[in-house]
Design a protein that fits this description.
single chain; mainly beta; Sortase, Chain: A; eight-stranded mixed barrel; 33% strand
């Protein structure tokens, strides 16, 4: 990571993510969500560490697609930087919602925490690409298609719902000695200005 990228990455660690999370009145019923077995991870509670074997780190290559079969996600990935106020940019509010990779983080498969953001709702357009992120469970698979034609496959280790005021910056952005992935969206109670919580999925490279 370049010194400029490292400074931007540290700056982002102090910012609240996804403040708007799509906004508007676009929440739709979850009746069409893929059916999952098992109970949800309680708000703010971590699942047990994964026993999956971590794969060797991959060469740097920008992510272009993201697939999460368990919740029906199959989306292009755009690149995000920092907004003028120093917070992390979020994907634009569009009918064809896409996830966004924070370009000052490692690419998926590199050593360190790669960060991908997505909306839970997109205003009048309805569900966002990460509408069902909180339904993921330990052991679920995440596939990041890379620009060089390879696929970085991750396994979910933890799913957490945390208050935005208590966003765990160190856990999300802190240095790690293996390739990891963070998927982030909004969650919890919805107010007139947005959601009170963030949903964070932690995953490790396994293939």
């Amino acid at each position: 990571m370049t010194s400029l990228s490292r400074r931007a990455f540290v700056t982002a660690a102090t910012a609240t993510l996804l403040a708007g999370c799509g906004g508007g009145n676009g929440t739709t019923s979850s009746a069409n969500a893929p059916q999952r077995q098992g109970s949800s991870t309680p708000s703010g509670q971590s699942s047990a560490p994964s026993s999956a074997k971590t794969a060797h780190a991959l060469a740097r290559s920008v992510p272009v697609t993201l697939r999460v079969p368990a919740i029906g996600v199959d989306t292009p990935v755009i690149q995000l930087g920092l907004a003028s106020d120093g917070t992390v940019q979020v994907p634009p509010i569009t009918a064809h919602d896409r996830a966004g990779w924070y370009r000052h983080s490692p690419t998926p498969g590199q050593t360190g925490p790669s960060v991908i953001l997505g909306h839970v709702t997109v205003g009048a357009y309805g569900d966002g690409v990460f509408r069902h992120l909180a339904k993921l469970r330990k052991g679920d698979r995440i596939e990041a298609g890379l620009e060089n034609g390879t696929t970085a496959t991750f396994t979910v280790t933890t799913v957490r719902t945390v208050a935005k005021a208590d966003f765990p910056s160190d856990e999300v952005y802190g240095n790690v000695a293996r390739p990891e992935l963070r998927l982030i969206t909004c969650g919890g109670t919805r107010t007139g200005t947005g959601y009170l919580d963030n949903v964070i999925v932690f995953a490790t490279l396994t293939g």
